[in-house]
Amino acid sequence: MNDDQHDDEFIVKEVLAGEIQEFGTLVSKYEALMYRYLLPQLRDLQEVEDISQETFFRAFRYLGSFDPKRKFSTWLLKIARNLVVNRYQKNSFRTEKIGYVDGFVENSSKTVSSNDPGNQLQTKEEFRNIFSDMLGLSEDLRIPLFLRVLQEMSYEEIGESLDVPVQTVKNRIFKARKILREKRDSTDGLR
After folding, report:
1. The domain containing residue 28 runs over which residues?
2. Using H for helix, E for strand and C for coil, what is the string for 71-140?
3. Is the model's pLDDT at 104 over the cut of 80?
4. pLDDT of residue 91
5. pTM for the complete prediction?
6. In the listed set 69, 91, 113, which residue is the last one of a domain according to the structure?
7. How much of the chain exceeds pLDDT 70, in percent?
8. Comparing C-alpha atoms, which of 126, 51, 146, 135 is closest to residue 100?
9. Which pLDDT value is given to residue 113?
10. Which CATH number does the domain housing residue 158 bear?
11. 63, 91, 119 — which closes off a domain?
12. Are 11 and 60 in contact (CB under 8 A)?
């Protein structure tokens, strides 16, 4: 058990012992993870906030069922995944918006180290194209790829949070990368 997992287990025990304000520590710790996990799926900041809030609410409500042998983050993402799936099923929930990409790219471009405006513009455009291509992947390919690339989750953690075998995770990520590579190669050929 790593230190991070040990810390989470300690906090969970504290909350279950009546120190409910300690749950705020877990919320602070995993709020950014939740947003990075949900944003590629929902593509709408309001929906991300709603599902994120509901996830933490349910995690608090069912904290007694948390298995300390598992990672808290994986358990939390599984709750979020179930909420997203339920939302899709109940409301035939569909989002076609990718307008938030512009805002995301706008903020990300501030971290480009070069002071050359031409270089920043090119980097921003490349990022926009890659991110747009990733968003264009089917959900079963996009989500594992985002979890691997942006969350740096292991194949096992991804499989556990998505309820699929590890080999399926590997196959989906391989296929997603292949599609993106082919798309990039075909685009480079047009230049």
Report:
1. 3-91
2. CHHHHHHHHHHHHHHHHHHHHCCCCCCCCHHHHHHHHHHHHCCCCCHHHHHHHHHHHHHHHHHHHCCCHH
3. no
4. 57
5. 0.56
6. 91
7. 71
8. 135
9. 43
10. 1.10.10.10
11. 91
12. no
